[in-house]
Amino acid sequence: MAALVKCRALLQPVRSQINVISGVCRSDSVLHAFLTKRAPHCVRLSSSDVKSGDDLIVRYLDGDDSGIVVLGINRPQSKNAISKNLVTMMSEALESLKKDNKVRTVVLCSIVPGIFCAGADLKERAKMQQSEVGPFVTKARTLITELGTLPMPTIAAIDGAALGGGLEMALACDIRVAASSAKMGLVETKLAIIPGAGGTQRLPRTVGVSVAKELIFAARVLSGDEAKSLGLVNHAVEQNESGDAAYLRALDLAREFIPQGPIAIRMAKLAINQGIEVDLKTGLAIEEACYAQVIPTKDRLEGLQAFKEKRPPRFKGE
Prior knowledge:
Distance between the termini: 28 Å
Oligomer: single chain
Radius of gyration: 20 Å
């Protein structure tokens, strides 16, 4: 009973609205493909225009894809390495997303061809004082934790290399899709350090303790196909000419989620994430608490009515 009471305290629904951030359409070829490939609607948002130096581009899709938000990492000069500015921009984006009940799924991808994220920006790191390194790693770890605790489903689309912190970022997502040619690994031991943004914890939870130890100890880099065989990614797809096969597969997955009850999906995610960390009895109490959250919703009644009338349900997240 105590566990159930504690669980209920974690399940207060968030109702505040989003503060929209980031940009407009641009015409360069890679980003143009990102904006138009099977997601033709470009939404002009309410803040300053995206400039060529923006490290993160946030795109709210509309039309049939309304509810999907795409976060595109855009640091071509640094192979999408994690910098102070990128951490700040991503933190601001996640803070907005977690408050928006209209967001159904978040896709994290790269706008830079052939790279997902190369990990920490070592050039920037080299310029830091020793006293600055610890706080920066803490901020990066907090960012990735925030990504992992977003209430809606998250999908990492890995169309290129995801190394070190880049893979840690992908591990924080619910689902990972990789191009078969993509390379990924936690390679920090090559630099005489360890994964510092959740890799030592999320990788063993994903592929098992023994396999995770082998991969980290050897700083091994895997292909997308090898990652699929180990369960590190959900899907491995052949890369296409435009270099966005994983992104397109991620969009297809997101489209499968959109018709389902959004509150139910959020509660299912919470039940799984909280339950996997505790014993079965406590996990069942968490499931019960999450189930209690969907009972009074209008969506549940709409689902029953739609079934009775033999029509697709029209869920509103209410």
